[in-house]
Amino acid sequence: MIISHELVIGVVRLTLYVVGLIAFAAFNAAYLSLLERKAPAWFQLRYGPKEVGPFGLLQPVADGIKLLTKQLLVQEGADVLLFKLAPVMVIVPAIMCLAVIPFSETIGGRNINLGLLATFSFSAIHVLGTMLGGWASYNKYASIAAARVVAQNIAYEIPLLLVVVALVMVTHTFNLHEIVAQQAGAFWHWNILRLQASPLMPLAFLIFFTCMLAESNRAPFDMIEAESELVAGAFTEYSGMGFGIFFIAEYANIVVGCSLATVLFLGGWHCPFGLLPGLHWFLIKMYALCFAVIWVRWSFPRTQFYGLLNLSWKFLIPLAFIHLALTAVMLKLV
Amino acid sequence: MSIEAQTLHRETFILNLGPQHPATHGVLRIKLTLDGEYIENAEPVIGYGHRMHEKMGENRTYAKFLPNTARMDYVAAMFNTHGYVCAIERLAGITVPERADFIRVITAELNRVASHLLWVGAFLIDLGGFTPLLYTFDDREQILDLLEAVTGARLTFCYYRFGGVCNDIDDDFIAGTRKFVARLRSRMAMYHALITKNVIFRRRCENIGPISAEICRKYGATGPVIRGSGVAYDVRKAEPYSIYPRLDFNVPVYDQGDCMARYLVRMDEIVESLRIVEQALERLPSGPIMAEKVPRILKPPKGDCYFNVESARGSFGVRVISDGTDKAYRLKLRSPCFSNLSIFQECSRGMLLADALALLGTLDLVIPDIDR
Which of A228, A295, A315 to mutate to test binding with chain B, by most B CBs within 10 Å of its CB? Predict the structure, then answer.
């Protein structure tokens, strides 16, 4: 059997991509979790972790070791297969999403024509993972959370997709690389300010950001965790690395969401002033959004579950429809 | 039977909320019968922290029971001690010197502020907002520092004695208290801007968990709970004790009866308590802090006495029956939290779980006060 040269290179490249992406997701989860402890500490007049390593920089390592050395307990009555499969089903799609995101002109896992569609297809799977995890736990709090997560994610997927459909109508492409290329130049070329396409574009960005918060189950929409109501929601019965993987997936989802927002609305790797485009601009924008996500979490109380659904069905979805219709009309006129 | 009722298969399940649950702030267990997330019945199960304080009060001398009083409602310990010493003083016919009465009111009102500040933070945690707790604790810390300097304790104060207080306050305490009053006044605007005006907070509180004055009357709820339902009942005004009749303060009342009303009552009470502290400091007389000739082993004459004080949570009552010996024949403690919790079963019916927990939060329960 002859192994072709291309095949070897292809396999090596694929392996490197996968390893690199997992490392990227894990690194982000580790240091965003540190930021999640340091930033609120700053809001709340306290220090946050500072003992492990300089400024507490090694704290995520210590946390990781702690989680790894703990046993993954499966309680009696739980569906063992689903219980163990659920964390995997949550983290794998998040990492898959990262594969199609262009970090800069040259850096990016895969440049495929249906990149946008791929990210949304993958990100829909983690809902299933969380639901199965909650269901398989054989715990009443987890079951309530499992029911919540489905209702919440269906409600927020709709305005999210409506906004994205409007954007695709403007850009005429599903290719994330091309969407960014179209926004070349200073900040008034970015999609968020593409007012000639639809005057509601800045609002569309806010809808996208809100839905992204709800999709990644972050406060003030963290209905599935809701510690004051449901103890730890869907993750109540998880211990050790089972919990750890959910934790990493939460941050990986934030990174994916913020990357998408950067790519779709904020001009990806382009500089706001048209200078020196590159990876650093992408990272600056993405981490600024990540910080905003953390900031929101520590500033607001949690919404009620029906308040959350009302916000989507009665406000965001109509608004997204108006935006869609307006975009269509504007495209026809201009 | 309609077609919907025949085909819809409804199933309820029982959820044990507690005894260890983040929202119950202690070892309270609530047996919830849930239909989805709607509560059909919520049955509080209490007694996990029962320590027989009443019985303890009956088999040890009066003075030996004093430290116990601080261990019931430990968030506002001054009031329990205040109620207990006042009851015994009335029974034994001891007159408290004026200065001691002033000091009692100052420290008690500071304790009320500390208790309400803790409640604001803890309530916001019930609603899922963690940050305000750290701010309110920062302020509460200042009160605890002040009280620690005079009472020697930060939480379970045992400062009042039969006939007065055990330690005089000094100039440092007075200056520190004045500074603190000014500081907290300026911080109240911040609390209102960050919490009261927050959209999510308002949505979670307004029209949520309405309690009617009728239900309060039925179950004997008192304190901010009944004042949030439009009844201006405050023991300090209704059955004035100590030096309260000589001080100028308002009783905040809100008519809505929802969580927001109870929140606003407490926020206003903080301001009113600061006013009381300020007035009392201004008029603080000099003189002794202990009544003369209080025997070491107190033997009140035969008699029966009930004394009521307005604690941070409502009316705290002490009934003592003395048979002339050095121990009480019968001691009955009426804790406000017990009555306030009892309205939960009726009020939470038909509510969503998250809203019911907001309602539970506004009742401001201290579980050891219920269990005693």
Answer: A228
